[in-house]
Amino acid sequence: MTSFRTTAILFDLDGVLVDSTRSIERQWRAWAREHGIDGDLVMATSHGVRSREIIKAVAPHLDAEAEARKLEALEAADRDGVSVMSGALDLVRSIPEDCWCVVTSGTRRLAEARLQLAGIPLPKIMVTADDVSHGKPHPEPYLKGAELLRTKPGECLVIEDAPAGILAARAGGMKVLGLTSTYPASALMQADQVIQKLDQIRLSVIRPRELLVEIA
């Protein structure tokens, strides 16, 4: 059994706390068809990265900010197939509220819609695409999360499902658990450990602001 001592847990959202893969793919492929863009190319770059960056990469002739706003409004309204990830609700409920946050590449509007739909309590702290200048794989989002949690990056544990997020957390000096909900384990090897389900995590509060995370 592997264990980590940490003062805070920083969660990615999609593919970690909320199963939204079908909604994301449905909306992005519809957007790609509308603009005559290869949907497979879009999907190859869409996980864990801000919408505006994806649009700039695959359609530099479009207004990335405007397109991202339209796309994420559609995603926020798309409830079909969006559900809570196995083990997510029990895990976040076991963590003191000042010891966890969500760090997502989506907008605040989209993040709140998905958390509410999944029945997960809104965290006191959330870092979204609206809050940073640089998205994942840049470390700014996770460093911002650590700052808002008032903890040192080296004392944080990140849970991620995408290579871009793992790279962001590692660049920020944090430990990372990779979750194989979106990518195979072979794509997540830069994480400190790879797990299949959140149910494998056992968490104990040792003392205020110190958690013991054990992986079954």
Mind explaining what this structure looks like?
The structure is a single chain. The longest helix has 14 residues, at 21-34. The strands form 3 sheets. A 6-stranded parallel β-sheet has the order 6-5-2-7-8-9, with helices on one face. It has a 3-stranded antiparallel β-sheet with strand order 1-11-10, with no helix packed on it. It contains 8 helices and 11 strands. The chain is 37% helix and 21% strand. α3 (51-58) packs across α4. By secondary structure, it is α/β, with parallel strands linked by helices.
List keywords for this structure.
six-stranded parallel beta sheet, alpha/beta, 216 residues, globular, DNA polymerase, domain 1, 8 helices, Rossmann fold, three-stranded antiparallel beta sheet, 2 domains
Q: Describe the largest sheet.
A: 6 strands, parallel
Instruction: Give the count of helical stretches.
Output: 8
CATH architecture of the largest domain: 3-Layer(aba) Sandwich
The fold-level CATH name of the largest domain is: Rossmann fold
Distance between the termini: 6 Å
Give the CATH H-level superfamily of the largest domain: HAD superfamily/HAD-like
Spatially, the strands of the biggest sheet line up as 6-5-2-7-8-9
Low-pLDDT stretches are none
Helix content: 25-40%
The outline comes out as: globular
Order of helices and strands: EEEHHHHEHEHEHEHEEEE
Give the C-level CATH assignment of the largest domain: Alpha Beta
Helix-strand category: alpha/beta
The total number of structural domains is: 2
Quaternary status: single chain
Please give the number of β-strands.
Answer: 11
Average residue pLDDT: 93
Kindly estimate the percentage of residues that lie in beta strands according to DSSP.
15-25%
Computed Rg: 16 Å
